[in-house]
Design goal:
It catalyses: tRNA(Trp) + L-tryptophan + ATP = L-tryptophyl-tRNA(Trp) + AMP + diphosphate + H(+). It comes from Bacillus yapensis. It is a single chain. With 329 residues, the protein is mainly α. Helix content is 56%, strand content 7%. It has 13 helices and five strands. It binds tryptophan.
């Protein structure tokens, strides 16, 4: 059995990009028999960006409810809240003591902020908290604690997995073979889902379509998706069409073929938008109801996550003890 692990941080409303890029592939991998999946709400990672307690709590429940509404089966997946597993934070500290500061200086997310600050003449660490700086180490602790073999993530996370590998290697070298070296699994074709403006769908660009949007608002957002100004009757290219890229994620194979033909013959963008709305709405109708039910019953979510935490701690408690023995506590 191979352990496959991934987390989602509660820093924004879950959108179609999160679903296509992370949740859908993770749920599919969870169905494979040789994988033992471990999925969690990365709330401590979320805290690096969140300062509004109410919103943070709401978004944390939202991440959990999203996984469950989309079909995660807590009997088959170890499913928990990161902050319910204190062993991760003890390991985080132990790994911190093995991490060179220089390595963290070169982490992409941190470096991008520093570069941005410098380019506008601000002090280089402006707006950087220590949680953000240490982010990759906590993520390594998440991964190494459960002897993860495979991490399904987006391209932007590759460096984090490499840092986790480096830390595992350093530890193993110093204290003897302890950690499994994790690998990443990137869903190539769906890695980047375009947003309303054609850039990667991302909360930071404000171009997202929330996954559980109500039908009327969903239609409105879809109507905002950028297109060119070709008239309805001219033949259109599916390759560079944001609408088509989204459509093929939700339509059946037959529908995709038909849409390709309609593009070739000439179809109005308004009509494509209508069809896109239909397929997305068809897909989310049921999960949206389930999501709403769960969000109305936080106690149910708490219970499921608590049971998951017990299963996770059955692994993390003895393993942390082994790690502490090796280090010399
Ligand atoms: N950094 C990940 C993201 O932003 C979230 C995350 C936290 C994670 N810990 C993880 C992903 C461990 C995979 C494994 O998407």
């Amino acid at each position: 059995m191979k352990t496959i692990l991934t987390g989602i941080k509660p820093t924004g409303e879950i959108h179609l990009g999160n679903y296509i890029g992370a949740i859908k592939p993770a749920l599919e991998l969870a169905k494979i028999d040789d994988y033992s999946p471990v999925y969690f709400v990365a709330d401590y990672h979320g805290l690096t960006k969140m300062t509004d307690a109410e919103e943070f709590r709401h978004l944390s429940y939202g991440v959990a409810a999203t996984w469950l509404a989309l079909g995660l089966d807590p009997n088959k997946v170890i499913f928990y809240r990161q902050s319910d597993i204190p062993e991760i934070f003890e390991l985080n500290w132990i790994l911190s003591c093995l991490s060179s500061k220089g390595l963290m200086n070169r982490a992409h997310a941190y470096k991008a902020i520093v570069d941005e600050n410098r380019s506008v003449g601000r002090e280089s660490d402006y707006g950087v908290n220590m949680g953000l700086f240490n982010y990759p180490i906590l993520m390594a602790a998440d991964i190494l604690m459960f002897k993860t073999d495979v991490v399904p993530v987006g391209k932007d996370q590759i460096q984090h997995i490499e840092i986790a590998r480096d830390l595992a290697e350093s530890f193993n070298h110093l204290y003897g073979k302890t950690f499994v070296l994790p690998e990443y699994n990137i869903q190539e074709e769906t890695a980047v889902l375009p947003g309303l403006d054609g850039r990667k769908m991302s909360k930071s660009y404000g171009n997202t379509i929330p996954l559980f949007e109500e039908p009327a608002k969903l239609q409105k957002l879809i109507n905002k998706i950028k297109t060119d100004s070709l008239p309805p009757e001219s033949p259109k290219d599916t390759e560079n069409s944001i609408l088509f890229m989204l459509y093929k994620e939700f339509a059946t194979d037959a529908e995709i073929e038909e849409m390709k033909e309609r593009y070739a013959k000439g179809i109005g963008w308004g009509e494509v938008k209508q069809e896109l709305f239909q397929v997305i709405n068809r897909f989310i109708e049921r999960p949206r109801e389930k999501y709403k039910e769960l969000m109305a019953s936080p106690a149910t979510i708490d219970r499921i996550l608590k049971e998951g935490a017990e299963k996770a701690r059955a692994i993390s408690t003895p393993f942390l003890q082994e790690i502490k023995d090796k280090v010399g506590f």
